[in-house]
Amino acid sequence: MALIVKKFGGSSVATPEKIMAVARRVLQEKKPDDKIVVVVSAMGDTTDDLISLAKAVTDQPVAREMDMLLATGEQVSIALLAMAFTKLGHAAVSMTGFQAGITTNEVFNKARITGIDPAKVITELNAGKIVVIAGFQGLTKAGDITTLGRGGSDTTAVAVAAGLKADHCEIYTDVDGIYSTDPRIVPTARRMKEITHNEMLEMARLGAGVMHPRSVELGKHYGMPIHVRSTFTNESGTFIREEYTMEEKEFVIRGVTHDTNVAKIAVLGVPDRPGIAYKIFSTLADANVDVDMIVQSVRVMDKHIIDMVFTIAQGDVSQARLILEKLAEEMEFSGLLIDENVAKVSVVGAGMLGNPGIAAATFGALADAGINIAVISTSEISISCLIEEDKAKQAVNAIHARFFPA
Ligand code: ADP
Ligand code: ASP
Ligand code: MG
């Protein structure tokens, strides 16, 4: 007997026919005693369509109401999938995030799961049913519906798998595993048999949209292996696990990623006093605006003035603009520039530790492609460069070709 959590993404359940196909596949793979939980996303482009609906009403939707709206997408797909199982002769029951016992913090639109009480799920599994859970959503302690950020159904799946102490967590999607870069951008990208939680977490954080970053973080924290595979083929896919078991650890670089959901903010002409960085970044943090790459530069001609450049997610731009415009007077800065036409390209690999040639090779690939770098940042296992947005795909191709020659 095994307890397995399987997650199917939006393109896997885009039509009623695809929903039936998912139900058939789950039943074919199920051994008689297996207990199965299925987590699903909203059908196809439903979430994008709901966002457009909100935008047709207002430029600045209230965050709580946005989550109330977005959470409806998954409620449609869970009900249809449970109906499909029943039609095929297997008992099934659908549950919203709340019914599945998923509690989150109060940060609407990008909430974090804070707890899972799987009692109702366990009762239904013990009654022999397949339990179909809505991805991407939860409930705050105060009883408000929240969503987990775009792509958040992966996180629901891994959290539920950890909460139930499942044997496996399987993520079914429209690609047959994790590749060295997005195979839609670089057709020669290489599929990996396995990748560590640490490297996948870094790739996801830096824009590899195939996994929601928080799902990999939870997988790492709970030691839960995650198996990423295709909904539409039987390819063996990729295992995300704690350590390598095969020869793949030999690779210095594991992946190249890009993220266009980035905005560059320049706060110009700030009088150089202690506490400046603290004031700017603590005010942004209080409003839950995540800051990423940060550069502070002193002006050569006037040592008492600094410029501060940093990046945030595009979704946080309007809030950050309001906050910084308010701070401008108090902190006496002379200018505020916001540029949304930027992208971050990154290389990721645990093997780059102590291997200085990697940074040089990355910058060299961009230089040869004539792409200018605005900001550079590094972690122990990644190097990121901020560039112009319309050069992102060219940059990914150039860097990928440098590290993964055909
Ligand atoms: P789902 O709806 O199943 O959650 P997503 O669209 O969120 O699917 O994620 C799958 C997509 O991720 C793929 O179609 C692919 O274009 C993209 N992707 C980005 N980086 C990678 C990568 N390194 N490996 C595989 N797919 C990637
Ligand atoms: N439906 C949500 C989205 O489109 C969550 C998900 O697909 O994981 O972002
Ligand atoms: Mg996804």
Describe this protein's structure.
The protein is built from eleven helices and 18 strands. The protein has 406 residues and is an alpha/beta fold. The radius of gyration is 23 Å and the shape is globular. Bound molecules: adenosine-5'-diphosphate, aspartic acid and magnesium ion (MG).
Count the helices. How many?
Answer: 11
Order of helices and strands: EHEHHEEEHEEEHEEHHEEEHEEHEHEEH
Mean pLDDT: 95
So what's the oligomer here? single chain
- What is the CA-based Rg, rounded? 23 Å
* Largest sheet: spatial strand order: 3-6-2-1-9-11-12-10
Low-confidence stretches: none
Number of strands: 18
Q: Rough shape? A: globular
Largest sheet: 8 strands, mixed
The secondary-structure class comes to alpha/beta
Tags for this model:
406 residues, alpha/beta, 8-stranded mixed β-sheet, 6-stranded antiparallel β-sheet, 28% strand, binds adenosine-5'-diphosphate, binds aspartic acid, binds magnesium ion
Secondary structure layout:
Layout: E1 3-8, H1 16-29, E2 35-40, H2 46-57, H3 63-87, E3 92-95, E4 102-104, E5 113-116, H4 119-126, E6 130-134, E7 137-139, E8 145-147, H5 153-163, E9 168-173, E10 194-196, H6 197-205, H7 213-221, E11 226-230, E12 238-241, E13 255-271, H8 276-286, E14 291-298, E15 305-313, H9 317-331, E16 335-348, H10 357-368, E17 375-379, E18 382-388, H11 392-403
Parallel strand pairs: 1-2, 1-9, 2-6, 3-6, 9-11, 10-12
Antiparallel strand pairs: 4-5, 7-8, 11-12, 13-15, 13-16, 14-15, 16-18, 17-18
Helix pairs in contact: 1-3, 2-3, 5-7, 6-7, 8-9, 10-11
